[in-house]
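Problem 12. The chain below contains 172 residues. Write out its predicted structure in token notation.
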Amino acid sequence: MGIQILQVMIAPVPGEATGIIGGYLFGTLPGFIYSTLALTVGSWINFLIGRLMGRGFVRKMIPTSTLNRMDFLVKHQGAVIIFILFVLPGFPKDYLCLFLGVSLLPLRVFMLMAAIGRMPGTLLLSLQGASLYDREYLLSSVLLAVCLLLVYLVYRFREPLYRWIEKQNHGT
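Solution.
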């Protein structure tokens, strides 16, 4: 779990590798649980670093092109796109957590997005690691379909989600 937390904090380290290793070493469910807890803690730490250190620090940590892309996505699509970015494999979530630390996103909304948004990918990686033993590829395909369904549902119900997040911003 410590390696997984550090992986989030040291952005260039690929999280996919540690997720697969977790599934390989511990099996699907324990690997998923350990990875989810560690990724959530690492995401929280990065968010707090961004919040405490400020935008100037974040600009030094995140490549300008990535920072500009995140700025654009968040300003134009808001919370739904943030959630989708957490679900998408390969997106630099470590940088995203730092960036969101300097945004107006409330901590509790961030924690939900980071934890829940990472779960499908984390489960898929744990399954991939465990499937090295079992060679069960059908389950991975089903999980991918579930991830796509989740992205669709979040996009489809984005307006109620925006209203809920707005309530969280105003503390009501």
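Discussion. The first helix runs from residue 2 to 9. Students who got a different answer should revisit the alignment rule from Section 12.3.
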